[in-house]
Amino acid sequence: MTTPDAHRVIDQRIDRVVPLTTPALLHHHLPLDAALAEAVVAGRRAVGRVLDRADDRLLVVVGPCSVHDPAAALEYAGRLRETADRLADDLLVVMRVYFEKPRSTVGWKGLINDPGLDGSGDVNTGLRTARALLLDVLRLGLPVGCEFLDPITPQYIADTVAWGAIGARTVESQVHRQLASGLSMPIGMKNRPDGSISTAVDAIRAAGVPHVFPGIDVSGTPAIMHTRGNADGHLVLRGGGGRPNYDAESVAGALDLLRAAGLPERVVVDASHANSGKDHRRQPLVAADVAAQLAAGQRGIVGIMLESFLQPGRQELDPTRELTYGMSITDGCLGWDTTTEVLTELAQSVRTRRASLPASA
């Protein structure tokens, strides 16, 4: 109960308050059935086996920078499913299905925050749209990966996710390290935008131990979360500070830092962002370098991330013009044809690595 004068001191910069649907209600309307739940568990288990090198395949997290058109994303998923099946002996393909877009300043913040692409901020519709798409992708037989930005959002969608990430802008945040410690899937920690890898290593260590923090439970009730720690944390190299960090020397240095911290020596290379200079046309060059390292026997690289969509490049979100179907409105992406070429090359490098290593390696 507030005091009579409370209106003078609280919510002074809040324009309006809209009730938020609860995770439990959204789960009720868009349920994860037993078959899909088993698929999620199997996907998480498969990712964990690759991270632990019990499975010598390469984890590939590939898909749009950020989903803005669920129909185009689902068409992409259908194509990716066929390619994933073809290359399944060598690649564990997880579709990148990102809904939250961290911004350095301002801009479209993702499908959950603004599903209408018009600044209306209809978060309830965004959550419903996002969960519906995740279920559709799972029905196609693909595991999904998401970046977790808002600490409340996971209660709405995390039950569908096989692999998750904490981004470069939030990896130093105690809130996100605590969140990662309680998430049920493996979590990749990206190095900071300035290139600092030690910050991400610290985040892996922090997320690996129990934490206690305030949050919400599945009913939407404020609760104190007691976590067990996430043993499946790993490092994602995305470049930074004007420099890439995917080359053999950088990878070796990152593995050294993990070893010195007493952490498993495993990295995922993000072929986009600073590693490609934010030029989608350079992602294949990054992937080719990673493929060469794999073929030479590098086992510390357990995965790669690619930003990819139906059409290459990016477009501006302009309300006066119709958007090009299947083209990103955030970071530039590989087109579909180039994506299949890159995935095929990566699969070949895994086969070469497998053939060059002793059976017990």
Automatic annotation (TrEMBL):
<dbReference type="Pfam" id="PF00793">
    <property type="entry name" value="DAHP_synth_1"/>
</dbReference>
<dbReference type="GO" id="GO:0009423">
    <property type="term" value="P:chorismate biosynthetic process"/>
</dbReference>
<dbReference type="InterPro" id="IPR006219">
    <property type="entry name" value="DAHP_synth_1"/>
</dbReference>
<dbReference type="InterPro" id="IPR006218">
    <property type="entry name" value="DAHP1/KDSA"/>
</dbReference>
<comment type="function">
    <text>Stereospecific condensation of phosphoenolpyruvate (PEP) and D-erythrose-4-phosphate (E4P) giving rise to 3-deoxy-D-arabino-heptulosonate-7-phosphate (DAHP).</text>
</comment>
<comment type="pathway">
    <text>Metabolic intermediate biosynthesis; chorismate biosynthesis; chorismate from D-erythrose 4-phosphate and phosphoenolpyruvate: step 1/7.</text>
</comment>
<dbReference type="GO" id="GO:0009073">
    <property type="term" value="P:aromatic amino acid family biosynthetic process"/>
</dbReference>
<dbReference type="GO" id="GO:0003849">
    <property type="term" value="F:3-deoxy-7-phosphoheptulonate synthase activity"/>
</dbReference>
<comment type="similarity">
    <text>Belongs to the class-I DAHP synthase family.</text>
</comment>
<keyword id="KW-0808">Transferase</keyword>
<dbReference type="InterPro" id="IPR013785">
    <property type="entry name" value="Aldolase_TIM"/>
</dbReference>
<keyword id="KW-0057">Aromatic amino acid biosynthesis</keyword>
<dbReference type="GO" id="GO:0008652">
    <property type="term" value="P:amino acid biosynthetic process"/>
</dbReference>
<feature type="domain" description="DAHP synthetase I/KDSA">
    <location>
        <begin position="53"/>
        <end position="343"/>
    </location>
</feature>
<dbReference type="GO" id="GO:0005737">
    <property type="term" value="C:cytoplasm"/>
</dbReference>
<protein>
    <recommendedName>
        <fullName>Phospho-2-dehydro-3-deoxyheptonate aldolase</fullName>
        <ecNumber>2.5.1.54</ecNumber>
    </recommendedName>
</protein>
<keyword id="KW-0028">Amino-acid biosynthesis</keyword>
